[in-house]
Amino acid sequence: MASEKEPTVIKKYANRRLYHTGTSSYVTLEDLAGLVRGGEDFVVYDAKTGEDITRSVLAQIIFDEESKDGQNLLPITFLRQLIRFYGDSMQALVPRYLEFSMDNLAKEQNQFRDQMSKAFGTNPMDAIQAQTRANMAMFTEAFRLFNPFAAAAAAKAKTEAEAAPPAAQKGDELGDLKRELSEMRDRLDKLAKAK
User: Are 28 and 18 in contact, with CB atoms under 8 Å apart?
Assistant: First the structure.
């Protein structure tokens, strides 16, 4: 997403404030994260020394994003392995490898999104949850049909219901339905806890 124009210059002052020279205004790390997401390149210089501190500011943005609930992109095993590469003979290769991998991921992400949208609609998670519910209902029904104890109990209940007077049958049917519903809930709870 790098652009052809010169990157925007951001100056960091001793009071830790960041100054966007393009808009002549102070910005936050969240604002800089928005620039990155929007594809705008920037460099950050220490206002006093002129040192390029872009890397540490970008690392701070990543740290802030990783500390938000539900925003974790970097698995713990990846972070540990990354730390192990510091000082290792492979350290010089890691930045190029990561840059190559991220470039490929960025190129492929639009194609992946299109495939997910075609397969699952606009929100893939809704489709996955709906499919999970359908699978669970099918599994529950199959379990009910193939459970010999439930089949025997249902056959016994049916025989007793047929032998009962018509007025009692209606009351018993409602009781049977309530009992079956309760049993089904218990089985679903047990299945959910097993996972």
Answer: yes
What average pLDDT does range 54-65 have in this prediction? Answer: 93
Q: Is the pLDDT of residue 48 over 90?
A: yes
- Which of 71, 62, 56 has the alpha carbon at shortest distance from 16? 56
- 3-state helix/strand/coil string of the chain: CCCCCCCEEEEECCCCCEEECCCCEEECHHHHHHHHHCCCCEEEEECCCCCECHHHHHHHHHHHHHHCCCCCCCCHHHHHHHHHHCCCCCCCCHHHHHHHHHHHHHHHHHHHHHHHHHHHCCCHHHHHHHHHHHHHHHHHHHHHHHCHHHHHHHHHHHHHHHHCCHHHHHHHHHHHHHHHHHHHHHHHHHHHHHC
Q: How far is CA 190 from CA 144, 151, 172, 178, 184, in A?
A: 14, 19, 27, 18, 10
**Chain segment 107-165, per-residue pLDDT in tens:** 888 777 777 777 766 666 666 666 677 666 665 665 555 555 555 666 676 676 666 66
The pTM of this model reads 0.54
